[in-house]
Amino acid sequence: MEDFGDNGHGMKKTLKKWLESIKTELFNPARTPEMKALSVALGTFIAFSPFMGFHFIMAFTLAALFKKLDKVLLVGFTIVNNWWTMVPIYAAGLWVGELFTGVSGFSVSMIHWEMFKLKNFLNGSAFAYIGHTLKPMLLPFLIGNMVTAVIAASAAFFIVRFLLKKKNRGIKQDDEHPCSGTKDKAAEPAA
Predict the structure, then answer these.
(1) What residues have CB less than 8 Å from 127, skipping those under 6 apart?
(2) Between residues 23 and 90, the one the model is more confident about
(3) What is the Cα–Cα distance from 37 to 43, expressed in whole angstroms?
(4) Contact at 8 Å (CB) between 56 and 78?
(5) Ramachandran bin of 190, using left for φ above 0, alpha for ψ from -120 to 50, beta for the remaining angles
(6) Cα 80–Cα 82–Cα 83 angle in degrees, nearest 5
(7) Mapping DSSP to helix (H, G, I), strand (E, B) and coil, where does residue 191 land?
(8) Under a CB-based contact definition with an 8 Å cutoff, are residues 159 and 33 in contact?
């Protein structure tokens, strides 16, 4: 068995830092729940979009163009599409695309994976294979993943906005006296 040095602890620390920064930004009072939810939704849309290899470019471009977006949330939720989630996300998108276009009959077993070796990319045969064999999947893949991107982004927006508004209501209610609905004067420092 190979020894990878830190046995994955470095990756765990990185993931923990990433999750902490997401949590910090979600509960940062400087932005409205709607702006935070929009940032999450756009990051989720990008993650589910079919434009592999361009996700970070899309996220950083949106973050640069729209200054009010929360950059950490936008880029952070783009990472929803990663090595562990890519296959299920794109397989679901292809399935949805098959439903929308009526084009079907694709199977992972039909793909000749040996064509994706480096030597085949260098001699051009991998590109020829992709163009010939996988071309019929292109339209269902694009349409299906755009549809799933819209659905996932919409769900992310409404769920995050609901949860943040609910949390904000809880904070405001904690500041009020439980019986009268007014602020508890005894809890405030004397002027």
Answers:
(1) 121
(2) 90
(3) 10
(4) yes
(5) beta
(6) 150
(7) coil
(8) no
Q: Residue 29 — φ and ψ, nearest 5°?
A: -75, -5
Which amino acid is present at 148?
Answer: T
Number of Cβ within 10 Å of residue 120's Cβ equals 17
Say which residue, 29 or 46, is predicted with more confidence.
Answer: 46
Q: What are phi and psi of 172, to 5 degrees?
A: -65, -40
Polymer length of the chain: 191
Q: How far is CA 191 from the centre of its chain?
A: 48
Stated pTM of the model:
0.70
Show me where the domains of the chain are located: 31-166
Percent of the chain with pLDDT over 70: 81
Average pLDDT over residues 11-20: 75
Are 72 and 25 within 8 A, CB to CB?
yes
Q: How far apart are CA 136 and CA 103, in angstroms?
A: 8
What the block records as the tokens of 72 is: 């950490």
Instruction: Name, of 53-57, 77-81, 103-107, 153-157, the range with top average pLDDT.
Output: 153-157
Identity of residue 28: N
Q: Is 129 exposed, middle or buried (0-12, 13-18, 19+ CB in 10 A)?
A: middle
190: which 2 tokens? 């004397």
Q: pLDDT band for position 186 (50/70/90)?
A: very low
